[in-house]
Amino acid sequence: MRRSSLPPVACRVSDTLIARGHHGVIVSRPEPAATAAEAARSLGVDVGAITKSLVFLLDDDPVLLLVSGAHQVDLQHTGQRLEGTLTTAPAEMVREVTGQPIGGVAPVGHPTNLPTWVDNALSGHREVWAAGGHPNTLFRTSFRELVRITAGLPIDVD
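Above: the chain's sequence. Below: its structure in token form.
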């Protein structure tokens, strides 16, 4: 996809990826995928290889969890692992802290760096896919590279 045809927010994500040593290639789809399962079907990959970028509040601070599409976040268990109370961030806050629309939140390219944790389940896939900052965009990476480009910490999510 030509860069000029990407939404501006996806271009910011691409620039961030490149600045962090990733190839920065973002692909665009004609229709957004409403779920991880839809994204997986359209790419021909296992749903577990889809990375969901989810913003939560850890106590009162926004944090980013990069979660396998095969997992749902158990707020109590994951909060205990993070040593705090984990709650879902309001949609308005998600847009504010990421600068990206819900359904297209990328792991990078936010106005500020959010503390980030990466689901260890993603390590079971040679390549993983994440949103590119817009609901119609995706990029390919690996678990190790995702941890590196986000400065994230691996964690078990259940």
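The longest strand covers residues 50-58.
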